[in-house]
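Hey,
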Amino acid sequence: MGSDIDGVIEVRPASGRWEAVAGLPGGALVRDRSSRECLFGYGGALQVDRPLFGARGIPEDASDAVPEEDELNHGHSYATWAEVAAVDWDAPVCDGPAANHVGEWRPGPDGRLGLRAVRTLSDEVIDAAGELFGEDLWPYEWPPGGEVVLDGAVFRPVTFTARMFAPPDEEPWAPVWTAMRGRAAAHGPENVRLVVWFG
């Protein structure tokens, strides 16, 4: 069981009153807890310390399309296009490496290692780390530079970034940012915002 997300894109025309102009595209309505936690601080298990737009509540001047806080609609947050456009998607959203996730690094065509995925810590990696380090340690406890080589991959501790779970140029959020960017070209980046809520 999980919470659904809903939201609207609003614009503020010359009249000064925010108006809802679009709902969230279908892809953004999926129950992707990790991206929601990185973006809005809601509903995940990553233990994100600094979500990009977390727990802001309902804007005081929200359009009529934004429901009041109640049992069915809660966890409101929002962001203007100016704020979204200024995000450093590669900045850490946590204070240190994750306890139960690792980065999976694999060689690319040029032979250089590149981060291919962020994985939940598996029994195989735990066991290999225990043999390598001589004791059972969570990834954040591994010695500096510690890594586990297993099945052609290199597993390293990882500090979460928003790009890892909500990449701005991929589904499900890329269509939202594209829609906001287009409206910002007409109304200005401070006059376009996304408002979301959960229920």
